[in-house]
Structure formats: structure tokens, C-alpha cells
Amino acid sequence: MSTWDVLLWGVLPYVTVAVLVLGTVWRYRYDKFGWTTRSSELHESRLLRIGSPLFHFGLLVVIIGHVIGLIIPKSWTDAAGLSQEAYHVQALLLGGIAGFCTLVGIGILIWRRRTTGPVFMATTRNDKLMYVVLVAAIVVGLATTLLGAAGGEEHNYRLSVAPWFRSLFVLQPDVASMSAAGPAFQLHALIGMLLFAIWPFTRLVHAFTAPVGYLFRPYIVYRSRQGGPAVRPARRGWEPI
Amino acid sequence: MRVMAQMGMVMNLDKCIGCHTCSVTCKQAWTNRSGVEYVWFNNVETRPGQGYPRRYQDQETWKGGWVRNRRGRLQLKAGGRLHKLLTIFANPVLPNIRDYYEPWTYDYENLTDAPLGDDFPVAQPKSLISGKSLAVEWSANWDDDLGGAPEHGPHDPIVERIRAESEEKVKFDYERAFMFYLPRICEHCLNPSCVASCPSGAMYKRAEDGIVLVDQDQCRGWRMCVTGCPYKKVYFNHRTGKAEKCTFCYPRVEVGLPTVCSETCVGRLRYIGLFLYDVDKVTAAASVADECDLYAAQLDLLLDPNDPKVIAAARQEGIAEDWLEHARRSPVYRLAKTYRVALPLHPEFRTMPMVWYIPPLSPVVDRLVETGHDGESAPNLFGAIDALRIPVEYLAELFTAGDPGPVTEVLRKLAAMRSFMRDVTLGREIDESVPAAVGMDAEQITEMYRLLALAKYDERYVIPTAYEGEAHQLEEIGCSLDVDGGPGMGLETGSGPFGEASGRPVPVSVETFHALRVRQTSEGIADPQTPRARINLLNWDGKGRPPGLFPPPREASPEPGDITEGGAEPDRRAGAPTLEDRR
């Protein structure tokens, strides 16, 4: 366990979380107006209609997969009677398909962004950087899924990455586990941390305001000019009789 | 009964000459910036015609507004909440920019810079979206004044429906064509489907005056409101990624001024005033089974401001006395409910629109006059209204979900007024039977004539102000659109770290304060080094070019006698040409 290991797997994660949380708070306070999806559907919708759902729904499944793989300890699935092989099959199927969809989706979206004139013109440098990191995270992540399917102790992230990930939350980072993980996993984790670090400063913030509340609010929204209840002080002058 | 106040508008279509002054002044006031080049909060359409955006009335395509489902309940035509969230990544029915039109400018520089040659240089159209040359093929008023009507007219969704229903064709040949203008703004509906469609809850109806607005800080650009609005009066700013819409000029209305479109209307055809309505009954009224009953249901929502019970209930809701007073004098209430000459636009969308229209009698009068008849005699007009099916049916499809009854009644009232007032003006014997034929009396007809024909400014616009107690807050609230790229983009707010349009808006009052201070304290006309400086021409005696009259040139290369002495880096936007640049 070298100093590098401690820095990468013991310090960097907390730096990332700090940047993510403080950056998001800062962005929300400073730049509410810039907090938007910056949709380009007005310019082009044919490719978007295929690429965007493919990417977003794929990503949602990928996120669920990460939660399952990283949060649920191996001992639990073992206790439930799910063998290592069976787990791998479902992880490869679910993760592989979702990851592939995500990759194809973002591929279509980037192709569209590059080839549709108005959409490319609306692309900022910030967007391009974000795309590089995002695609890298997806590609390396997909690679680790395939590696994990190949089997082997060093590719079993549930014995290396997952314990480290969980240990971060109890503030006792299990650096040793992570430093024992394969290089692909380490790279994916690093890119992932980079992605979370730049998240608050890119258009990705729109994910934090996913409109789930829409399901529960009344259709018509009334708001008073003052922000509070509509109270109208009577004007000076004759009282009504 | 829960009484709420609603700012409403009535437009008298007989008076609209299609000059587009309302559209132009509105554009100058609100959408004169990049990102909303294609946006017209106010537009004037020629009917029959496709409208703007193209064929927006065809809800089978655009899925706007509400529908009544089998259980008799209202449902968004574009799908419920869950469906909306599932299609949020790519809205399946969002209009493309080409359904509006691709905005363009002209390459004027070529006119002066083109090399000498045999041909005259031309200013080619350039797309404001991509910057490339484009072939102009459509715009917001492509079929203005029935231009190209033989080709474009049959695609008017109403023309299509009339043909399907009555086997009769709307004629577009010159001799038999009819037309009128339809100015449109946001309807500020009582049951707004755009508000209901907004996943973020950024769109809202103001509790005080019913104006429907978009909270620019809360909008996340999910684009569902654009689909939700059946009038397609919510637009997507492609630069800021936020929805924008007609604001009913709320900063003006709050201080008792009419909207810009009304103020500048050449024909003086717009009326602004208050409605009082029962908010508890809106949903029930919008859900009546028969579409043809929607107009009547909407009328029933409007409460009589002279009814003591209504007044008491309104007071209980905290509506101020001067608002009640204004509601009693409201011209829009008189036109819509007392005289029943104003009709809602497309009530079948079930949004309870609050911009009402007095249908035009002119197609009928024109036809009479063209065929050599007296266009001002009551029997002629009454007969023609009954005989001329096409204009009436067309108007009915616009204003009463296809029921010709209410349209005929309105037209008869307008005809009676026309005929009756001619007798009065010419000093003839007054025929009391003419008003009686339309269920009115001479006095009422005269009052209606005063409101419609004389249309005095303070009778057209009866607008209560937001109170004095709140006045200081009104300024501080500011205009949330007032950021770079926002309507208040006069500020040199520059760009935040996340590209244009990021960062915090500067409240209107702060901007005004700075401008005022500069004006009062600066020695010269303006300080060119101050980004927010305003030029005060009142300090200029008209002689010479004092420092600050023009912004510094782009490259700091002071010429002898030029306005910039120091040659400091000019602080202004790139691309804004000045007189200096053109020399």
C-alpha cells in the first residue's frame, strides 16, 4: 500500500464528494438560470428521439446496476442462494445490455451533435470536455463488465471495489481492497470520480432536478406575486360601506 | 364560491387591419434577442390560413390542450404525468424550428464590400441559427393577406374540417374569397394546459391577476409546456434552454398601463380589464361533455361584479376594493358577458382561454356591398348572415367549437348596431325593432356602440394597479428574464462561467438606479469606461462629438480627434457595429 494508493483511494474520494456537494450548492445558488437541460430538440428531433432515450434509460439501468453491485455485499447474495456464476450471468446481461445501449445512445447523440449544424454551434467547450469524460467512463465501465464476466479473482469487483466503496461511507476507507483491484477497475473508478467532480460545473446538473415531484403536485400551479398567500391590504381612502 | 380576479383581453376583429404593429412592438419589447429570433409572443394571422406555427390548431398532430376521457375527467391530450416523465428525454410532439420558421437576416455587408463586377451585389439571406445561406421558404406570415392561398389555404386545419363536415369548400379564388385577421397572444387560460404540463412546476398562474408566467430560475427546459399549449404560445429559447411566453406585459399592467400590443394597436381594437371568476368551478366547466357547451360553461364561470354576494365573497378572498371597482367598470366583462359579443378562441381545447374575440362582420358586409346591396340595412345583413354559410361556419370552428348559433347571434348584434347607428347618425327615424330583433334595447346598443366604435382610451383599458404597499417589492422582484440573452438584455451583464446566460440576473431596480446615478453625476454624456453607462442626450448641445457619445472603436487605435483619448480596451460586446466601424 503506497502513498499513491492512500491518496487515490483514501483521499481523492472525499475530495470528489466535497467538490460535488459544495460545487452543486454553489452552482444552485449562483446560477439557477443556467440550470437547464439546454435541449437542442428544437433543431433536430429525428436522431434525438432514438439516441436520447437509449442513452438516458440505459444510464438509469446502469446506475441501478452500480447500486446493486456496490452496495449489496457478496455475503448477502450468497446467503440468498445466488451463486457467483449466476450473479455474473445476470450482471453481464443486465450491465452489458444497459451499458451497450448507453454507449450506442451517446454515440448517436454525439454524432448528431457533430453533424447537425445548429446543434454543433450550440455546443460549448464545457460540453465537449464533459462528453470526453462521460464517454471514457462508459467505455471503461463496459470493459470492466466484460472483464468481470471473464472471471478471475482480481476481476471480482465485489471482493475489491465494493468493500472499498462501502468503507468510504463509514469514513474508514479500505485502501488495501481497492489497490488490489484490477487496473481497469481502478481506471474506471478514477474516471468516475473525475466525472462526479466536474458534474456540478457542466450541464449534467439537470439530473439533480429530475422532476419527480410532478407525479405528486396538483396540475395547475398558482403563485402569489408576493410569494406568500394572496393578501391584499386595502388601499388608503374611503372604507367600503 | 372562491372568487379570483383575472386579467382579460377582448379583440374586436372587425377593426383589425393586419398592420402587425402589435407584433412588431411586442417583438421589440420582449423577443428582440438571440435565442428567440423566431418567437412572436404576439402574431397576427390571416384567416383562412395556416397560422403560426404552421397548422398549430391541428391537435391530432400537436397534442395540445385537454381532452375529456371516458370517465368524464380531464386529461392532457399529450398524455398523463407518468407518460410525460417517460417521454421526457425526447418529447415526441415538439414542433421543429421549421414548423415556426428558420429565422434569418441579410448579408448587408456584401452590398458595400462586394468587388466591382457586372452584376449588382445582393444581400443574401443568412440563417440566424446556423449562419449559413438559406432559401427562405416560410415565415410567421408567409400566407399574409391570403398570399399563396390557393396553395396554402387548403391546409388550414379549419378549412379541412369544414370540408370534411359539410362537403362545402372554402373558396380561395379572388372573387369568392373572404378573409380577416386574427391577432393572437397567450390566452392566459383559466385552466392552462401548459402549466399542467410543466414537470418542474416552473410555470404558474398568478393568484392576483391570473397572468400565466414562466419562472426562469426554475425552468429546466423539459419542453413539455410547448406541447401542452394548444395555441403554441409557449416558446423554447434555444440559446438559454428555457421556455418563454407572453407575459401580458406584467410590468406595465402592474402600474396600470395596457400591454405594449394594446397600447400601440393602430385600430384601437384591444380591450383590457378584469374578470371575476369562481375558481372552484373551473375544472367542472372545462369538463362538460359536449364541446359546443364549453362556451356557455365558460361564460357561467364569470361572476357578476355588481352582485352583492360576489362582492362579499371577493372581499373575503382579500380582493382589494379598487380591484372590485375596476371589475365593475371592466370593458371585457361587458363585451363577453353583458353584451355577449366576445367569444373565446377554440373553447374545444378546454383550457378556458381569457383572450376573447368579437368575430368580424366584415366578410358579410363586404359580400353585400360587392353584390350591389346596401351593407348597412338590417334586413339585408340579417339575411346575409343566415345565407352566407362559409364565413359563419369558419368563425364557428374558431370560436364556438363549430356551433354556428352563438356566432350568428353575435353577428346579428353587430349588424343591428351598424344599422341602428346609421339611422341615428343620419338623423333618420329610429327603428326600435332593430335592437329588439337581437334582444337589446336602444340604450344598450348605444352603449355598446360607444365602447366598440368610439373606444376611448380609458374605457378600453380599465386596469387596476398593484398596490402602493407592494410597490417597493415590485421593483425588487425584478424581471427574472433580465439576464444576458434575456429580454432585459440591455445590461452588459456579460457571461458567467457556464457560457452565456449563466449567472445571476441584475434586478431591474438596480439597473435603473445605476443608470440614474450615472446620468445625474457624470460630467459628460456618458462615461465610456462604465459598462452600464447610459448616454444622456439631454446633456448634449448638438455640437461636435463629445467624449462618450460613441463607444470606443474595437481596436484601440486612437485617431486624431477621435473620441477615445486613452485608448483603453473597449468594454462592449463584440459584433455590435458602431458608426465608427462603418466609416
UniProtKB/TrEMBL annotation, chain A:
Q: Which residues take part in binding heme b 1?
A: 56, 188, 206
Q: Which cofactors, by name?
A: Mo-bis(molybdopterin guanine dinucleotide); heme b
Give any single GO term for biological process.
Answer: nitrate assimilation
What keywords would UniProt list here? Cell membrane, Electron transport, Heme, Iron, Membrane, Metal-binding, Nitrate assimilation, Oxidoreductase, Transmembrane, Transmembrane helix, Transport
GO cellular component terms, alphabetically, are: nitrate reductase complex; plasma membrane
- Signal sequence extent: none
Q: Fetch the PANTHER family from UniProt.
A: NITRATE REDUCTASE PRIVATE CHAPERONE, REDOX ENZYME MATURATION PROTEIN REMP FAMILY, RESPIRATORY NITRATE REDUCTASE 1 GAMMA CHAIN
The similarity comment for this entry is: In the central section; belongs to the NarJ/NarW family. In the N-terminal section; belongs to the nitrate reductase alpha subunit family.
Q: What does this protein do?
A: Does not seem to have nitrate reductase activity.
Q: What is this protein called?
A: Nitrate reductase-like protein NarX
Q: Which gene encodes it?
A: narI
UniProtKB/TrEMBL annotation, chain B:
User: What EC number is given for this enzyme?
Assistant: 1.7.99.4
**Gene Ontology CC, one term:** nitrate reductase complex
Which PROSITE patterns would you find in this protein's record?
4FE4S_FER_2 (PS51379)
What molecular functions are annotated in GO for this chain? 4 iron, 4 sulfur cluster binding; electron transfer activity; metal ion binding; nitrate reductase activity
| Biased composition annotated in UniProt, kind: Basic and acidic residues | 569-583
From the UniProt annotation, give the residues forming the signal peptide. Answer: none
For region Disordered, the annotated ranges are 539-583
Matching entries from NCBIfam families are given as: narH
This protein's name: Nitrate reductase subunit beta
What are the leading ranks of the lineage?
Bacteria, Bacillati, Actinomycetota, Actinomycetes, Pseudonocardiales
- Gene encoding the protein: narH
